[in-house]
Hints:
Largest sheet: 8 strands, parallel
Radius of gyration: 16 Å
Structural class: alpha/beta
Number of strands: 8
CATH superfamily: Aldolase class I
Helix content: 25-40%
Strand content: 15-25%
CATH topology: TIM Barrel
Distance between the termini: 11 Å
Amino acid sequence: MIIAPSVLTANLADLATDCREALDAGLDWLHLDVMDGNFVPNLTFGPPVIRRLREALGPDAVFDAHLMVENAEASFQDYINAGCNHISVHVEAVKHLHRLLSAIREAGATVGVVLNPATPVEAALEVLSEVDLVLIMSVNPGFGGQSFIPNVEAKIRRLAQAIADQVAGGGRTVQIQVDGGVKAHNIAMLRDWGVSNCVVGSGLFNDRADVATNLAEIHAALH
């Protein structure tokens, strides 16, 4: 299981410090929630902040950019140039999905698609052979700290079976990532459904304990 801390719930006034704490705790992915105030009702940060964060943290961390924006086709290169290793785009916000996925891969990043809770899984199955990751939103995107929507289970299980069938047929393996309400009490359940990558926000960055302590609780739940 890859644990990708969501920096949206970190201290944005001291982002590099909180991200360094996560990396020092043994995590190597950072999930960057990019919001434009149009596709979702919130604003976060963009390439200039990501570039500075990359300079502060060095080259080793995987910058996992989740673009909740309406202009991904025009802006994805800016995020790669800023230091992002992986780009995930929403199927609901892209006009020419196949073309965009190919362009992101050709630009040197791995690529994923994102499904909102109400979006059928078929939208991801259409491009399953072309992606490295499918992100299933288990909350409606736009804000951190929301509760997990349990009816995503059927979507995840169907996606996991489709990936297994693709691999059995000689195709690429694909990670299933889940974002929204993931904490120690439900992460083992997600693994059992077929999830291999979990975005964790307030379950890691909170006032109860430091990241290393919270991560130890998550690992204990998994094992």
